[in-house]
Amino acid sequence: MIDLLPLLVLVLIGVFAGLLSGMLGVGGGFIMVPVQFWLYSTSGYPDDVSLRLAFATSLAVILPTALSSAVGHHRKGAVVWRAGALLGAAALPAAVFGAWLATILPAAPLEIFFGLVVLAAGARTFLAPAESAEVPAVPTTRYLLWGVPVGLVSGLAGIGGGVILVPILTVALRFPMHRAVATSTVVMLAAASGGLATYMILGQGVVGLPPLAVGYVDFFQAAVLAAASIPAAQAGALLSHRLPVRLLKGVFVVLTTYIGLRMIGVFSILGLPL
Fold this sequence. Notes:
mainly alpha; 11 helices; 76% helix; globular
C-alpha cells in the first residue's frame, strides 16, 4: 500500500522545483535532493545509498523539467543557443566524471560539498555587479572552460548545474538575467543526461535498492516528481519574463542560502528545527 504522506510531499516538491526551474533557470535539484534524501533515510536506506538515490533520481526529474523550461523560454526568444550548445558540450562529460565520483565517496563530505556549492552560488548572485543589457561576444574556449565545473557539480551533487551556471552567466560572462535563466535550461539538458546515465550504469548490481530503480535511479519517485514539475516549469518560465530582475535574484539568494546552510548542518548545530 502506498503511503500518502510521502507521495504528497513529492508532489509539492515537484511543483516547487518546476516553478523554480522555469523562473530561475535551475533544475530544482537543490530543493529535491534534501527532501528525497530525508525520505529515503526515514525509509531505512543507509545514508550513502540514500544520497546516491536522491542525486540520481533528481537528475531523472531535472531532464524533462529542463526540457519543458527550455521550450517555454525558446518561445519567448530568450535562449542564446550558441552559448547553450558550447557550455552543454563541455558539461556532459564533466557530469559523467562527477557522477562517478559520487558513487565512490561517502555521504558526509558530499552533503557538505553540496551545501557549499549552493551557498557560493547565492553569494555570487547577491554580490554581482550590474548586468549587461545585451549578450556580449564570448569566445568559444571560454564557454567550454566554464562548462566543465557546471557539469562536474551537476554529476557530483545531483543537480542540473543551473544553481552555479546562472551566477557564471550573469557575473563572469555578463549575460542579462533573463537570458542567463533561459540559456541555463538548455545546458542542464546536457549535464543532467551525462550524470543520469552514469548513475544508472554504476548502480547496476547494488543490492537493497527500491523496487522500480534502474541503478540508482528510482523511477517511481522520478515519475511522481516529474508529473508535478513539468507543467509547473512552463508556468515558471512565463513568470520569469514578467517579474523584475531584482525579485528573481532575491528569490534565488534566499533559497540558496537556506538550502546551503541546511545541507552543511548549521541549523542542526544551532538546534533550530529548520
